[in-house]
Amino acid sequence: MSQSEVKRGRRLLFGRALGLTAASVFPLSARLAGSGSEPASGDLVPPWTKTQGHPILTPAYGERSKYEAAVVRVPIPGRVNTLTAASLTPLQDQRGIVTPSGLVFERHHAGVPDIPPERHRLLVHGLVERPLTFTMDDVMRFPSVSRFHFLECSGNSAGEWKRMGSDIQVTHGLLSCCEWTGVPLALILQEAGIDPRAKWLLAEGADAAAMTRSVPLDKALDDALLVYAQNGEMLRPEQGYPLRLLLPGFEGNMNIKWLRRLKLGEQPFMTREETSKYTDLMPDGTARQFTFVMEAKSVIVRPSGGQTVRSRGFVEIQGYAWSGRGRILRLDVSVDGGRTWRAAQLQEPVLSKCLTAFRMPWQWDGEPAVLQSRAVDETGYVQPSRSALLAARGSESYYHYNGIQSWRVASDGSVENVHA
Question: Hey, what CATH topology would domain 297-418 get?
Answer without folding.
Answer: Immunoglobulin-like (2.60.40)
